[in-house]
């Protein structure tokens, strides 16, 4: 009985050494397969860039022409606050024959804002718990025209 108890640690040590000598290496391929497919599922090659946090497009062209003072002040408020994820975007549109400004929400179930050219809040076209806004401008997404990116948070 005593000799069998002594053999257990010795056998465990031998098995461990034998497993370590196999030099098993696990690598992750960084190149796409030569055939274009790896089995039946197409998997993109990994990227070295951080893809979790969105970054503003460096080539984005902002429509800074004739920004009303209230809108410049609103943009400054966003810059003074903590960075939001996703970043805030402001677009101008033509809606019901007038220029309006659409401000995205920072996240999730929050309302977006639609402002008149004078800065008056017209409605919340989308967002909220239902994703349909407050219902005061239900045709906005269907009838808006002339989209221009006015500003997006560059941070």
UniProtKB/TrEMBL annotation:
Positions of the DUF6970 domain: 77-153
Signal peptide interval: 1-18
Chain segments carrying region Disordered: 30-59
Compositional bias segments (type: Polar residues): 40-53
Record key words, sorted: Signal
InterPro entries: DUF6970
Pfam families membership: DUF6970
Keyword Glycoprotein: no
Protein name, entry field: DUF6970 domain-containing protein
The organism of origin for this protein: Hymenobacter luteus
């Amino acid at each position: 009985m005593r000799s069998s108890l002594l053999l257990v640690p010795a056998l465990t040590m031998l098995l461990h050494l034998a497993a370590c000598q196999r030099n098993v290496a696990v690598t992750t391929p960084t190149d796409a397969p030569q055939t274009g497919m790896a089995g039946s599922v197409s998997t993109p090659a990994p990227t070295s860039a951080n893809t979790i946090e969105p970054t503003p497009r460096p080539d984005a062209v902002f429509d800074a022409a004739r920004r009303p003072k209230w809108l410049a002040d609103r943009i400054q408020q966003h810059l003074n606050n903590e960075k939001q994820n996703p970043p805030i975007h402001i677009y101008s549109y033509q809606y019901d024959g007038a220029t309006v400004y659409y401000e995205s929400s920072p996240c999730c179930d929050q309302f977006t804002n639609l402002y008149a050219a004078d800065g008056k809040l017209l409605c919340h076209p989308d967002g909220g718990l239902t994703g349909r806004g407050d219902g005061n401008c239900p045709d906005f997404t269907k009838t808006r025209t002339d989209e221009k990116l006015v500003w997006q948070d560059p941070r």
